[in-house]
């Protein structure tokens, strides 16, 4: 478009001197001097009017072309304003998504606080359970049980430290996500600055429009234009150059806007990925919360079982681990609570068979209970010896079982008494045999 305008201006500049040269009066012969004089009288008027008309037409044509340029520039500015509005709406959408992410972070922090409080409650309950186990260990006067409980608590502490390390890693991930949100806010502020720069460019366009208005006012003074045609044409050329530069700037700005749109699309994809990651973190926190609830229920169940065992011990009058034959004596073993419950259940099952005179089955059950914990279960070994003593030809097995019980606890009085009873018939039999041989 600008090239066409420049070509038209060059043609106009070339055409005007040619017209002036064609309109100059030719030499008139002497003949018919009167007619020639009359024609010469009228010719100067034509020569004076034609160049002005031609210049006026050229200026009008240039003004029309300038109007077309201003109209096209106005349309491009309108499209640019529309693009800026769309950019502002997308920036508002991104800001809303950023606020949504901030709200999600706040919710996650709240849930993390709740999980911490529940962990503190579980730790308090576990501490109470540990105190009860220590009190029980003091009543049973077994140092080995206290050491095993301490080992269990150390294992729990190691597990808890691992969980805290995992939580620290998750919190670091959340902090990095927050830093990325801060970077997004800074980039949005940069976009606001760029919008201000665009406003300044619009002001420059308005000034150009004012210059065009000034040119229109100059067009009304045609007589003054005759003296300053050259200067005015140079001014028009400069204005056209300015308009060309402004158009180039607008095109560059449109390219920048397209680039910004691409960047915003990439940022939007990043935000979607971050939202998916936050959803995954939320589901992981929910799973951890369910696990903590299960742990709390397990701790409550263990506390109830310990309370039940303590009640059982309190109900036994004059309870003595070295003299009692009850199943509750297994509570004094330096074993985990779950293992002690299993041994008590095996002891009660074997006693059910023993009390119903199924002695062989009872011996097998007591043997299995003793072999389950051969280092500590002297009660099952004692009852196995007692069951074997009631069977024919099983005295040797009974002695083996009672010796095994005394190896575990040499101070166990029921095993000592049973061993004396088992050895006494053997001694009397050997004495009778000696008397018979003597006779």
Helix content: over 70%
Radius of gyration, in angstroms, nearest whole number: 55 Å
* Total tally of structural domains: 2
Q: What's the tally of helices?
A: 10
Descriptive account of the structure:
By secondary structure, the chain is mainly alpha-helical. It has 2 domains: 2-21 and 42-303; 329-438, Serine Threonine Protein Phosphatase 5, Tetratricopeptide repeat (Alpha Horseshoe). Helices cover 87% and strands 0% of the residues. The protein is built from 10 helices and no strands. α1 packs antiparallel against α2 (33-140) and α9 (395-408) packs across α10. The longest helix has 108 residues, at 33-140.
Task: List its salient traits.
single chain, mainly alpha, Serine Threonine Protein Phosphatase 5, Tetratricopeptide repeat, 2 domains, 87% helix, disordered C terminus
At a glance:
The protein is mostly helical and 439 residues long.
Q: What's the topology here?
A:
Blueprint: H1 2-22, H2 33-140, H3 143-219, H4 222-227, H5 229-315, H6 337-355, H7 359-372, H8 378-389, H9 395-408, H10 413-438
Helix pairs in contact: 1-2, 2-3, 2-5, 3-5, 6-7, 7-8, 8-9, 8-10, 9-10
